[in-house]
Amino acid sequence: MLRRPRTQPFAQFLLAISTLMILGTLALIDLSRITPLVVLGAGVILLNAVIMTLVWRARPGRNTGWLAIIPLVDILACIPIRNAGFDVLPTAGLLVIFPLGWLAFAFPVGTVVAGVVLTVLLPLTALLRLDGEKTLADWVALGALPLTMALIALTIRIIARDLKRARSHAESVSSRLTHALRSSERDGAVLRALLDATDDAIAVYDTDGQPVLLNAMAAEITARAHIGALTQETPLRAVFAADGVTPLRIGPDFVEAVRAGVYAAPRVLQLGEDPRRVLQLIVRPVVHDGEEIGIVAVAQDVTDLIHAVEVRDRFLSTVGHEFRTPLTVILGHADIAIMREDGDQDRWSAVERSAERLLRLVERLIAAGHSSLDVESRSGVAHVGAVVKHAVREVTARAQERGIRIVVETLPDLSAQIAVRDLFSIVEELVRNAVEFTPEGGPAVVVSARADGTDAVISVVDRGVGMSEGERLQAFDRFYRTPYARGHAIPGTGIGLSIAASLAEAYGGSVTLDAGEPDGTVATLRVPVQ
């Protein structure tokens, strides 16, 4: 009755059923009470039930105001039935509630008032049939029924209004939810298309480690590696660590490691037997409003990139070795010419210095040609103070050309676990960079060393042009040169810091760059002490 209250036949059906029950009861009590007028009233009610059945099947959506005639006629039809049995069956007087309730629920106020007025006929006809003089109490009782019916109609009217408002609100909410659902379905389809279009494998798991969303690439990899729930202890099939030998497993420990941030940084792993694919994996928990709602894993296929890097490294190594041989010959002949003392020593010394500089560049190219996967642990012992002084002397000539002083502070008596040649290469690179990136005639470059727990710390501080945070992050990338270096034609290849960092890491140390105070750059080398 909420959607089509005027065309629903249920109130009429209930009235017809109640009428038949009352007629049956009256027939059992006193068959003489079933008068032709009572039969006529019951017939009208049953006929209206048939009419409402036809209306209900036709389901008209407009121009349904005329249907108010049916409950109004029902009220009139209830009069003879009430008068026939009210004294022995009081419930006969309640039949009028069905049509009156229908009017109050589905039709305008004027129609409801008309229905209430018609209910006056029920007690009025009974009153007129009484013999003798009518008392005041009789006339007062005459208004009791219509007044009661009016209150019932008002109650139903209020309920109908509230139900209409609730229906309107529900329809509005339903419309918004439907729109949101359709929008969500469209967004989901777009997201699925985007995820399947990318070459990266993207997988989302719930907090129990069960897969929620896998794009096409992720589905292929998980099927190939037999990856199910992340919390299930499972040896993965044909999945190895970066070394290509160590097999990987997943399970509760893996999930806890993800939550601890162990896999927040990219990890390299290898997949498959022959040919193998190299993947770079990132796995992180998904947190919303401080609550973990799942885990997302992104794997990027870097096989082609790894192969390209290997080709580049082999090229650099090959070219470097090809250059080193003739340079060694040039240096040897330059040394012989200098020893002859034939008056051309200055020119031969210039040749020797240039060749040595070129040889250092070649050595850097060869070092750059060594892939990070080829770095091995190294050993050696170096006296920090002596090596630092030697490295500073090598850069002093260039510093004097640019009018920059190099200040070496007191150096402690430290021995570090690093080969002399490698420590010299790192310190020379840091000092040379400090000199090159300080404007001519600028502030002095300060070099110092100290012990810090189990590490020897060497610092090179300049007051030069400095570097932005992004430049400091990229400074250790091979062949990276800052815009300032390119714009001012500062000599270099962009591999010195990369080599220095790789050498330090080979001994368990590190090279870092920080912003100076108030300007410039602070380069710090940390290596274990002996």
Strand content: 15-25%
The helix content is 40-55%
Largest sheet: 7 strands, antiparallel
Mean pLDDT: 82
Distance between the termini: 92 Å
The overall strand count is 14
Structural class label: alpha+beta
Number of helices: 17
Radius of gyration: 49 Å
Shape: rod-shaped
Regions with pLDDT < 50 over 5+ consecutive residues? Answer: 371-377
Strand neighbour order, sheet with most strands: 2-1-7-6-5-3-4
Descriptors:
530 residues, alpha+beta, 7-stranded antiparallel beta sheet, 5-stranded mixed beta sheet, 14 strands
Task: Describe what is shown at a glance.
With 530 residues, the chain is α+β, with helices and mostly antiparallel strands. Helix content is 54%, strand content 16%. The chain contains 17 helices and 14 strands.
Description:
This protein has 530 residues and is of the alpha+beta class. Helices cover 54% and strands 16% of the residues. It is built from 17 helices and 14 strands. It has helices at residues 10-29, 36-58, 69-85, 97-106, 109-119, 121-128, 136-142, 144-197, 216-225, 252-259, 303-340, 345-368, 384-401, 420-436, 469-474, 483-487, 496-506; strands at 201-205, 211-214, 234-241, 247-250, 267-271, 277-288, 291-301, 382-383, 406-408, 415-416, 445-452, 455-462, 510-515, 521-528. The strands form three sheets. It has a seven-stranded antiparallel beta sheet. A five-stranded mixed beta sheet has the order 9-11-12-14-13. β11 (445-452) and β12 (455-462) form a beta hairpin. α1 runs antiparallel to α4 (97-106). It is rod-shaped. The two termini are 92 Å apart. Mean pLDDT is 82; it is low at 371-377. Keywords: Kinase, Membrane, Phosphoprotein, Transferase, Transmembrane, Transmembrane helix, Two-component regulatory system. InterPro entries: HATPase_C_sf, HATPase_dom, His_kinase_dom, HisK_dim/P_dom, HisK_dim/P_sf, PAS-like_dom_sf, PAS_4, Sig_transdc_His_kin-like_C. Its main location: membrane. Residues 318-530 form the Histidine kinase domain. The chain crosses the membrane at residues 12-31, 37-56, 63-82, 102-127, 139-160.
